Each structure stands twice: as C-alpha cells, then as structure tokens.
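sry for the spam today, last one i promise. struct tokens for design, 366 residues
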C-alpha cells in the first residue's frame, strides 16, 4: 500500500499513460491476487502454514525490488501483475496463522485487533508514501522503502512459532475447498465495499490534484482515515468480544456508505476530509466483523478457505473499482468514478440488511 496512491502519478509522469491505460495496468495486480486467493486458502489448510507463509512472503519481497528495473510500461505492467500472486497468498497465510494463535474464547476480539492492524497499514502506508513523494519527488526511493518494509515483515514472520497442528486430510478436490460456499453472501457485499475503496485509494491523489487543487493533502486524508479506524476499535472491540458480530458489521456498513456518498456528492475541502473520518469509522467496524462472519461460517479445517474467500471478494471489488473507475474517469471525469463507487457501496448495504445478516444468524456454526 505504500506505493499504491502514487502509482497513477508514476505511470502518467514516467510513461505518459492515459487514465484508461493506468486503470488497465493497475488492475492486473488485483486480478493476479484474486486468482491466487482460492489456491492459497487450500494450501494453508492442507500444508504447513508457517512454511507457506515464508515461501510467499519471500517471493513478495523479491518482487518489490523488481520495480527498480522496470524500463518500459509493458515491463512494469508484467512485474506489477505478477507481484499480486505472492502478495495475495501471503495475506491469506498470515491471517490464518494469526487466527490459529488466538484462544477460541477471544477469537472474535482478536480478529478485530488483527483487522485493525491491516486497516491501519492500509491507511497509514498511503500517507507515508505520499509524504515521501512530496518531500523527494523520487519514485525509486518509494520502491526501496517498499522493499525494506517487506524485508522487515519477512524477518518478523521467520520468528513465528506455532503449536503442532494435526494435518488436514487431503480430500478429493471440490469447489468448496477453494471457495466457502456458505459465505457467498458475505463475499458479494465485501466485493461491493472493495470496489468503493479501490476507486478511492487509487484515484484519490490525482483527483485531489486535478479537481480540488490539493497537492499536499492526500497524505492527511489517509491519516484522518486511520484515526477513524482506531476510534472505531474502542467501541467495536467490546461488541465483538460480546459476540455481537452482525451488529458490529451493520453499524460499520451503515456509517461507511455515508462517507462515500459525502465524498462523491460534495466536491469541496470540508467534505473531502470529513469523508475520511467517516469511512475510517465505518471500515473499522465493518471489516473485522465480516471476517469473523466468514470464520464462524466455516469448519475449523476450512479457516484458510474462509479467509481466502473474504479476500477474494475484496480483491475482486478493488480490481473492478480500479478498472471501471479508470474507464469512467477517462470518459466523464473522476467525479463519475467516485459516484459509481458510492452507488455500488449503497447496493452492498441494502444486500447486507436484506440477505446477509438474516442468513448469517441462521447458518453460523459458533
């Protein structure tokens, strides 16, 4: 996430890429992630999770360094697309290892705090990346920092020790080994929310520069969003600990959609920054609660599959947001791209209350 908000600027400044081309190039990364997610869920369910984590983490680290040698738009597009596979598998392995380490009585609360760490990284990394770019104007420094962060993560992961786990019997392959069928409704709504965030996180910097004349405020936007995430945990952690999972999810989706609508409908400075706080508050409640929903719908030997289904839905949404957001921005302007994101988010909220929440309360295993 450190380099995500500056990649559209990098492609435009370095290669002269247009808005549509930028959308296509950047969506390849998400497509690659989405394709690897189901297989990575199967791998962490059936093999040694620590070894799988270190294998893909090491590959992700190496790909971070390859950005420094991208000499053409095609080469960069290939590197960016291939990088998505090890990154996507790393996220699944890491989240499954984290869930294994949690005591069952505190699993929902622990998932909330683990989700907060992901949310903070998602919010703070773009801020840091934009700040470094504004101070240096050097894209290679950002690529080096991204590589350093991945290397530090790999070193930390190398020190993880897990309790012995009974090997899962490798059953005949079936669709349910790669996709948690019981969680298809959750996958639909997380796809909707991912689309909204994909449009926002990818095109925020260039939109602020072109439409609002903001050259140094994008980092502040993500900083405010991260404050919203942290504030949401003060209340959300208690609700998850008490087992009010669907309640927490309902609160999150209701709050965040208002933030996206505000951002799309009111193109001025106060709405720009207010939407960051509102989206942060909403996502801080929503994401860990929906992840807990997936885990509670899955048998213990399907935790990897549950996580991969969650992130597959999110990545599918982000990829669609980047792709169609680029097309709409090219044809009509960025305002239409953000309006699309808000509309899809609203549809996801409606689907949550009409289908997802009732089905979860009926089908949950724990």
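last one done:
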């Amino acid at each position: 996430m450190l380099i995500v908000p500056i990649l559209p600027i990098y492609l435009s400044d370095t290669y002269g890429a247009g808005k549509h081309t930028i959308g296509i190039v950047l969506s390849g990364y998400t497509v690659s992630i989405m394709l690897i997610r189901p297989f990575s869920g199967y791998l962490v369910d059936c093999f040694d999770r620590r070894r799988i984590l270190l294998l893909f983490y090491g590959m992700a680290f190496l790909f971070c360094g390859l950005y420094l040698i991208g000499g053409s738009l095609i080469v960069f597009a290939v590197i960016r697309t291939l990088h998505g596979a090890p990154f996507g598998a790393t996220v699944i392995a890491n989240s499954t290892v984290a869930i294994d380490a949690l005591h069952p009585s505190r699993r929902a609360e622990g998932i909330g705090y683990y989700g907060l760490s992901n949310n903070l990284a998602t919010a703070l990394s773009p801020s840091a990346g934009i700040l470094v770019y504004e101070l240096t104007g050097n894209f290679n420094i950002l690529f080096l920092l991204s590589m350093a962060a991945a290397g530090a993560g790999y070193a930390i992961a190398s020190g993880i020790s897990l309790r012995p786990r009974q090997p899962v019997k490798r059953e005949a392959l079936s669709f349910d080994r790669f996709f948690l069928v019981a969680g298809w409704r959750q996958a639909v709504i997380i796809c909707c929310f991912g689309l909204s965030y994909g449009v926002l996180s990818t095109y925020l910097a260039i939109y602020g520069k072109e439409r609002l004349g903001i050259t140094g405020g994008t980092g502040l936007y993500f900083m405010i969003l991260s404050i919203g995430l942290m504030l949401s945990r003060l209340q959300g952690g208690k609700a998850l600990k008490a087992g009010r999972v669907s309640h927490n999810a309902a609160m999150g989706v209701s709050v965040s959609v208002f933030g996206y609508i505000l951002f799309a409908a009111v193109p001025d400075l106060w709405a720009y920054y207010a939407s960051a706080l509102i989206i942060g508050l909403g996502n801080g409640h929503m994401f860990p609660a929906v992840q807990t929903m997936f885990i509670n719908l899955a048998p213990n030997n399907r935790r990897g599959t549950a996580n991969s289904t969650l992130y597959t839905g999110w990545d599918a949404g982000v990829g669609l947001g980047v792709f169609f957001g680029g097309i709409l921005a090219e044809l009509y302007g960025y305002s239409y791209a953000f309006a699309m994101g808000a509309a899809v988010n609203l549809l996801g909220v409606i689907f949550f209350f009409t289908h997802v929440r009732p089905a979860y309360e009926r089908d949950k295993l724990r």
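Residues 107-136 form the longest helix (30 residues). ok im logging off now
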